[in-house]
Amino acid sequence: MVNTPTVMTLKAPAVKAKFEEVLGKKANGFVSSMLSVVTNNKLLEKADPNSIMTAAMKAATLDLPIEPSLGFAYILPYGNNAQFQIGYKGLIQLALRSGQITGLNSGVVYESQFVSYDPLFEELELDFSKEQGDVIKGYFASMKLAGGFKKVVFWTTEQVVKHGKRFSKSYNSGPWKSDFDAMAQKTVLKSMISKYAPLSTEMQMAIVADNETETVAPIKDVSDDFVLQIEDGSGSPQNSSDSILSDSEVNISESSETLSEVKPDTKSEVLEEFQDELIPIPGKKSK
């Protein structure tokens, strides 16, 4: 691991201590993942360490891993800064934790299996007796709430591409390039959940944080950029088109263990207290 100024800053004991406030015993593994993500991305190695920690802390407060291959959350470079971005698996996890959603699914719709879609009543008809083929027609997201409400949303590939190019700052890089199907599912899921699902505190935090990576009107975030005081020497897919809300459905009982040591309000307070502090980057003189 190359000890660039950014890496040296992230290795400081004060950084680990801040993550321990949120993650407890999980902090060691999370900080190791953060360092791995940074050292495996040349743009992140040159990014402002404050922005990297801000992005990582947003994932930590949501108890989502940041290993890119897992697809729950990502730390992405954008200019000289890093940004948090949630993956479709992360959206599913947060939605299921609320206890108000009993079924949630997303997947690919192949041209050969597509029959029709009624946008007025949002009825999607597929013919699963057909082979999947190679051409993708679009992407679906579906949801069932504990109260009986059901929702199915379908976007064509063209709609997803148009949305990504218009709103996503990172459309030409990162998971949009390496895992387009996963990002397409995330886009449709996020649209559906933000409009029709009961939003828990965690889900609200996730959507607000994820919106910062898009060119949309800014929303005040409780987890504004934080910085730390460190002195020198102190150291983001499943192709679930085989069924809609059936065998491949994600159920509430399958939700993974969530962070129990810290309540959402406490997590927000941990973020807020960093706002007026400063990290000097090793090798740079303070003014």
Number of helices: 11
- Class computed from helices, strands and strand pairing: alpha+beta
Please, what is the average pLDDT?
79
Number of strands: 8
Order of helices and strands: HHHHHEEHEEEEEHHHHEH
Rg, Cα atoms, Å:
20 Å
In which order are the strands of the major sheet placed? 7-6-3-8
Largest sheet: 4 strands, antiparallel
Helix content: 25-40%
Question: Judging from the principal axes of the Cα atoms, what is the shape?
Answer: globular
The domain tally reads 1
Uncertain segments: 216-263
Q: Tell me what portion of residues adopts beta-strand conformation.
A: 15-25%
Task: State the separation between the terminal residues, measured CA to CA.
Answer: 29 Å
Labels describing this entry:
globular; 287 residues; 11 helices; 8 strands; alpha+beta; 4-stranded antiparallel sheet
What does this structure look like?
- The longest helix has 17 residues.
- The protein has one domain.
- It is 38% helix and 17% strand.
- The chain is globular.
- It is built from 11 helices and 8 strands.
- The chain is an alpha+beta fold and 287 residues long.
- A 4-stranded antiparallel sheet has the order 7-6-3-8.
- The protein starts with a helix and ends in a 15-residue tail after the last helix.
- About 17% of the residues have low confidence.
